[in-house]
Amino acid sequence: MKRLFWHTEKLFGNGDVNFQWQTSKANYLVTCGSNGHVNVFNRHGEPNYDFATKVSGHCTGLAWDPDGDVLAISSDQNSHVILWDTTMNRTIDLDVGLREPITAIQWSASAKLAVGSAKGNLQVYNHRADKRLPAPVAKHTKKIVSLCWSRDEKLALASEDKNISVSDANGDHICQLGVRADPSMVEFSDMKMDEKLHVDGQDNTISAVIGGKTLLLLNLHDVDNPIELAFQSKYGTIVTYKWYGDGYLMLGFSLGYFIMISTHMKEIGQELFQTKAHKSTLSAVDLNWRMNKVAVAGDSCVKVHDMSDLRETEQIITVEEESSTSLALSGASTRASLAKQSAGPTEVDKVAYTNDGQLVAVSTKAGSLHVFLAKLPSLGEAFGTRIAILSSLLEVTISNSVLQEPDISISLELEPAFLALGPFHLAVGMNNCVWFYELLDRGENTAPVRSNRRSKSGQTKVTQREYMGTVSEVKLSEKFAAVRCQNSVQLHRVGMSSLEDDESSSKLFPENAQTEGVITAIALTPHFFIYATNKGSINYFSLEDWCPITHFQHAKPVTRIFPEITGTRLLAVDDIHQAFVYCPIDDSLVAVEELPNKVEGVLWENYEPDKHIFATYDDKNLHTFVYVRDSIYDSSCKKVGGATPLYHGHRPVMLHNGQVFCQSPGGKMITITLSTHTNNNNPSSGGNTNRDASQEGVNADDYLDNMLKMNKIQDALSILGCQKLNSSSDSMSHQGVTRLKGFAEAALAHLRLDYAIRFYQMMGDVGMVMNCKDLLAIEDKRLLCGHIAAFVGEFDRAQEHFLASTNPKAALDMRRDLLHWETAMTLAQNLSPEDLPFISREYANQLEFQGDYLNALQHFEQGLNVDDTNTQGSLIGQAESEHQIGCAAGVARTAIRLGDIRRGIGIAHTHPSRVLKKECAAILEQMKQYIESAQLYEKAGFYEKAATVYIKCKNWGKVGELLPHITSPKLHLQYAKAREAEGKFREAIQAYSSAKDFDNVIRILVDHLQNPEEAVRIVRETGSIEGAKLVAKFFVRLNDMESAIQFLVMSKCHDEAFQLASTHHHMKTYASILGDDVSEEDYKSVAVYFETEEKDPFLAGKFFYKSKQYPRAVKHLLRCPITPATENDPNINPIEIAIKAVGEADDEVLTHQLMDFLMGEFDNEPKDAKYLFRLYMALGQYREAAKTATIIAREEQNSGNYRIAHDVLFGMFADLKDNSIKIPQEMATNLMLLHSYLLVRVHVKKGDHLKAANLLVRVANNISKFPSHVIQILTSTVVECHRSGMRGSAFDYASMLMRQEYRQNIDPKYKSKIENIVRKQDKSEIDAGTSACPYCNFELPDYQLSCSECKNNVPYCIATGRHLVKDNWTVCPVEKCGFPAIFTEFQAFLESEGGCPMCGTVMPAHSVSRLDGDQVKQALAIAAGLQSTQDSGAANNENSSNE
After folding, report:
1. How would DSSP label each residue in 68-121?
2. In this predicted structure, what is the pLDDT of residue 688?
3. Cα angle at 68 between 64 and 73, to 5 degrees?
4. Spatial distance between the Cα atoms of 516 and 535, rounded to a whole number of angstroms
5. Which of 241, 633, 1067, 1262 suits 178 as a labelling partner, its CA being 20 to 30 A distant?
6. Which residues contact 11 (CB under 8 A, 6 or more apart)?
7. Is the pLDDT of residue 745 over 90?
8. Using DSSP, how many helices (H) and how many strands (E) does the chain show?
9. Rounded CA gap, 612 and 610, in Å?
10. Alpha-carbon Rg of the chain, whole angstroms?
């Protein structure tokens, strides 16, 4: 709390300070210290110098009358009472007729002063009548220590004679009660009791503290049975107590305890709440109803609690003594200018609130008094986003948190009773005076009004005006002020004095009070002055035209109005607490639904997109409402969401984007988020984003639902758009689509087509996007509303809008589209009579579909009755003809269904439609009129349906006639069965064949016609299983067992075939025709037969392998001899089958067994290495297989079988690539060299000697790998190099041939030529060309396969042997190959040779395509992964001469 002022013991003396706030008004604080000086201070701490008095002895009473006009003062050494009349500022020394000192005084509600004396006497003084009792009444024998008035003017006295007495206002005795100890702190209260005894407005209970230990409760209706409550000894003595609420008590104890108890009889004696408020002592407790606060004083502080939660301490006021003299500080600048040294905390004695709860006074036992600001007057107003609040008693602060403007502080001369804020001015005032201040930050184009008077903060005070009566309300606009005084309002320019007023700048409202009534509410907008009267009128006065512009008359008196800032929407409340939103543009009135029972004010949204939202508030809650004017529905104003709790004592001032800016009791601004706007994170809103903590964590779905209800279409679009962007999935959930659809329909309903289009685009609803775009061109609002209402399913409402639009026929079109035929016919009678026949036909079609054939027939007949006068220009040409045909067809169908078959058939026969004949035939078939139905089917050309119906009536002759036109197998089968039953087998076979029922064809051929040759042909062609069984049985009867076995296998009767084969020793026949669809058991049976009966190890092993009996299979297969006939056929080679078995078995024992066999461990005859290679491949041991393949290839290469070696390496290369295994270096190099050598012949044949020479140079550099043809290869190299112009290379290799070991074996045909080359020593060399490295773009010789710059091995072209380039790259499209090539060279190779040079696959040239950049990168990565890194030195040696 802010301390306003304080005074020290220098003013009051050392000791307790007695003080009392003025009742009712609370403008004065009266004090009396130990020095006897009585001082009166105003609310700002300024002393009242007109009143000064001193009492002798100790002050025993400071009491204000109920109105706060008269102060009574008494002391223990004076028998008179001092009265000070504040209204007349005079002091009276009142003789109350007592001769002894006065010990207690108290005012009643009717301004009667009760005076108690030290001898127990009582005197009552009536101030209003200026009378007293004729003589004091002796009520007690000792000093009266406490007295109290009840609401019905009973007087309770507590005395040191240990008695409590009750008297009336005249001192007459009512009752008396003796107690066991000294009573004190007597109070009246209303304790809950029997309803029969309870009287409203009367206090029924007296409470008093007895001996400081117990609390006495005396029911005046039962004085003989008082209740005395005792408390725990640890609490100490009772210091004070307060009644509150519905019969509850708060008690403070000397040892710091603070408790709450109930006096309800069911709960009496129970502590409802207990806490140790202070560590050492508790000295006072005060309660304020308006603030709902309780202050507990003790030790050196005061703790403030909220009544709603006593367990929490809301504030702690620490009182510290000041070392300086007495100070009364009220201004912020004064406080800042004084430096004081704190003397430290001191013990608190008393605490007291003012009646309004704004100030709290605290005294100390050292004799100081401190006054704190507990609650400011709730004065605050907003204009747009700018807010002015009373931040201190003499200070107004103007802030704009939304636009982040700096605060403006204005110091005032007096404490205002009201204030108003405009765009450029501030008005404050009290009574009949108003001070106007101009705000200097008006803008660049507006100069402030200058004056010699300025406020302390530098703001210009424009003027001070006095009005004829007490001002109750002020409103400001840019240039004008509206001041309401009693029943009239003066509208005048701001800054002008009353002497400057004229008719064009000042006007008094109402002009005629008798006719217009009393003004009850006013408002001022930038363009209008608005006022309401008790006769129900709402009036708009134009500030620009200076004349009335609109007048609206309501049925009830209007008590309050709350316009939106522009004045185009105004919420009004009448005297029966009904509210409505008034729009002056069209004088529309919309009732506010679910208005709370209590409305203290209304705040309209300042956020531009949400100007249709407002909030009402009371002292506890805020409620959100949405006003909708433009909609396909009626205008509405509905409540949205639940109530938003409002902090106690906080007053809402302004609403912006769901943030309610509230004035706190301490003069601060806080924001509360409306429950409907929680989670509002719209970045475009601007302003203070502070959130009320109680509102956090609201479900996002609930928040979006509130946005939908509040018509916040723009914000919802932003949020849902962000959610879609942040979503990881392209598809939307069902919930997301439903939410988007809700917002899209809401945007449509409020005619926001642009937003609806965007929502439907987010949903991907192309149809609705196109529909909405079509509506953008519609200018007629009612027509637009009609289309939108139809979109959202509000068809009745759509019809209303259409009929009121410029195109009422749209209502008829809508009803026709919806198949609402009765409504459509009603509309057509007035809107478009020429359309009635068409509507009748369409309605009849629906009735026919629903089964209402009678009414359908009537409407079809009405559709035929076309009135030429009405339909001229409409039913013409083809349209009329189609309509007549459709109606006639409907008559035919419905007539047949209603039993008028002849009429229906007649129309159908003459009608041109095949469809009608079919429909009528189907109806007749349902009615079992088969002959007529079949005839109509036949006439319509539906021969299959006709045949079906003829079959039902067994008219086979007609069926036979129709068979050439029928393709249905079912009908052919039915006819075939009928012919077979009649013994006409040839006709039956033809029908069965047409029906594709070959089993029955075979059956008839075998059983009836004895034609097995034809049956066998059909079985072989069709593969019929049942037919094969029939043929097999036939051959069994003929004793042709081999044929029978063959057809049993075809019919999947393997068991019967096996039995037949084993019985008649035809097992090899059976085994030879077995396919792959046989079970393992069947294979095993055959294998066992060959093992035991035939003793054939090869067939036994083969069929054991097929039955997955791998050990037995290998055992038999390894026994079989290898002959030249079996070695080259893998299907009959036992070793090949054994390798497959071992590969599939994955058994280590079998593997070792076969390995030993191949190595010759069994017969000392090692088998061909190719079998070992195939074994490694079958086992998946690709590295070992690669090594073996390399050995095989090397052997073949050494033997001169270069094509075989090439194919072996290529096959192994493909297998390793398929299994993602890196290619060994030696294999890749050998394959490259062999492929280069094989390409030479192709290019020599084509005459491309340069390519051939470069390839031969590459091979000659590795001549050691071709030992069988060293001389031939070198000779070819010399010849081709010499032909192509590579004379240097030709000389090098010719010199090599001249060596002793080669010279004698040179072909004589070339010997002399070679010798001549060596002899001439021509070393000139033609350049083969360079191209870029595909890795680093370094220029390399075309036939160099290693880059000296990036050290990478470069892939080679399989068509030329050159290294590849990135921009001319392709690959062989064959999956097992995939080798790269130069695109243009590969195409040329395919055109000339027809197949891939690497894999040999034949393919057209157009089947290959050039790779793009990304594909080339991927190919390079694959090449790097599949080929091993070759030694750069070895690669360089490929293109260097062999010395």
Report:
1. S-EEEEEETT-SEEEEEETTTTEEEEEE-S--S-EEEEEE-TTSEEEEEETTSE
2. 40
3. 25
4. 7
5. 241
6. 33, 37, 39, 326
7. no
8. 47, 66
9. 5
10. 58
Q: In Å, how far are 137, 982, 1194, 1230 from 1264, measured between CA atoms?
A: 149, 89, 11, 12
Q: Are 1136 and 1177 contacting, i.e. CB atoms less than 8 angstroms apart? A: no
Spatial neighbors of 743 by CB under 8 A, at least 6 apart, are 708, 713, 716, 717, 720, 755, 759
Spell out the residues 6+ positions from residue 610 whose beta carbon is closer than 8 angstroms to its own.
Answer: 657, 658, 710, 712
Residue 326's pLDDT is: 40
Counting every residue written for the chain, the total comes to 1443
CA–CA dist 1341, 1344 (Å, integer): 5
CA distances to 671, 673, 679, 919, 1196 from 693, rounded to whole Å, are 10, 9, 11, 73, 88
Task: Encode pLDDT of 1227-1285 as tens digits.
Answer: 888 889 889 989 999 998 888 888 889 999 999 998 888 888 888 888 888 888 988 88
Residue 825 contacts residue 843 (beta carbons within 8 Å):
yes
- Alpha-helical (H) ranges within 296-421 are 332-337
* Dist CA 325 CA 332 (whole Å): 19
Residue 364, classed as helix, strand or coil, is strand
256 band by pLDDT with thresholds 50, 70 and 90: very high
pLDDT tens for each residue of 3-31:
888 998 888 988 899 999 999 878 899 99
Q: How far apart are CA 1043 and CA 1023, in angstroms?
A: 15
Q: How far is CA 227 from CA 63, 258, 273, 665, in A?
A: 30, 21, 20, 40
CB-based contacts of 888: which residues, under 8 Å, 6+ apart?
Answer: 864, 907, 911
- 709 within 8 A of 612, measured Cβ to Cβ: no
Angstrom distance (rounded) from CA 489 to CA 917: 89
pLDDT per residue as tens digits for the range 361-405: 999 999 999 999 888 888 999 999 999 999 888 889 999 988 888
Tokens standing for residue 1222: 């890196």
Please state, in angstroms and rounded to a whole number, the distance separating the CA atoms of residues 1205 and 1207. 6
Contact of 191 with 265, CB cutoff 8 Å: no
> Structure tokens of 681?
């994170």
- C-alpha distance across the termini of the chain, in Å: 107
If you write DSSP's letter for every residue of 536-583 in order, what string do you get?
SEEEEEETTTTEEEEEEE-SS-EEEEEE-TTSSSEEEEETTS-EEEEE
Place of tokens 């294999």: 1227
Give residue 132's pLDDT: 92
What percentage of residues in the chain have a pLDDT greater than 70? Answer: 85
**What is the Cα–Cα distance from 297 to 351, expressed in whole angstroms?**
6
Q: pTM for the whole thing?
A: 0.56
- Beta carbons of 672 and 644 less than 8 angstroms apart: yes
896, 920 in Cβ contact below 8 A?
A: yes
Cα–Cα distance for residue pair 735/751, rounded to 1 Å: 24
pLDDT tens for each residue of 1360-1391: 999 999 899 999 998 888 899 999 999 999 99
- Rounded Cα distance, 1417 and 1426, in Å: 14
Could you tell me the strand order of the sheet in which 547-553 lies? Answer: 519-524, 528-533, 537-542, 547-553
The residue with tokens 């054994």 is 1138
CA–CA distance, 539 with 548 (Å, rounded to integer): 7
Alpha-carbon distances of 258 from 268, 285, 309, rounded to whole Å: 17, 9, 14
In 1107-1201, alpha helices (H)? 1110-1117, 1124-1127, 1134-1145, 1148-1158, 1169-1179, 1182-1198
Eight-state DSSP code of residue 904: H
d(CA 1182, CA 155): 118
Residue 200, both tokens: 């409203």
Q: How many CB atoms lie within 10 A of CB 1069?
A: 18
